[in-house]
Design goal:
globular; 141 residues; 5-stranded parallel beta sheet; 18% strand; alpha/beta; Rossmann fold
């Protein structure tokens, strides 16, 4: 398959991973760092902390947030609600182990959500969704 990459796309420079699973964060950060060495990758296990830090300017609003859905304290849906409420402008890609159709469909209701990626994050998914910025689903074995 011939791959087309729009060279006018600005690569993501500042990416935040939000997942309550520290091992997922570690692996995803390694995959992203290897495939996107120009980007700064920051991980958080608590979505509320990310919101608070962005609101007070402790961290810059990233170009991209990879967001898990099912987390304690604040889930991904609540995080998206508060992003809108606080007018935080960042692209979001849902990165979840949930393959429930209702979660995938619900993600389409949020303007900031560019796509829904099923875990695990792989090099193929990084290239397709994050580097090439495609929004259509891919089949990866």
């Amino acid at each position: 398959m011939l791959k087309h990459q729009d060279t006018t796309l600005k690569p993501y420079q500042n990416i935040i991973l939000i997942d309550d699973d520290d091992v997922n964060n570690l692996l995803n950060r390694q995959f992203l760092t290897f495939n996107m060495p120009q980007a700064t990758i920051t991980t958080f296990q608590n979505a509320q902390v990310v919101l608070d830090y962005m609101r007070i300017g402790k961290i810059l609003t990233p170009d991209l947030i990879l967001l898990d859905i099912n987390m304690p304290e604040m889930n991904g849906w609540d995080f998206l609600y508060y992003m809108d409420r606080y007018n935080i402008n960042a692209e979001v890609m849902m990165l979840s182990s949930s393959i429930h159709w209702d979660d995938i469909e619900r993600s389409k209701n949020y303007e900031k959500v560019r796509c829904y990626i099923e875990k695990p994050l792989t090099e193929d998914k990084i290239e397709h969704y994050i580097i090439e910025k495609n929004t259509e689903a891919i089949d990866v074995d």
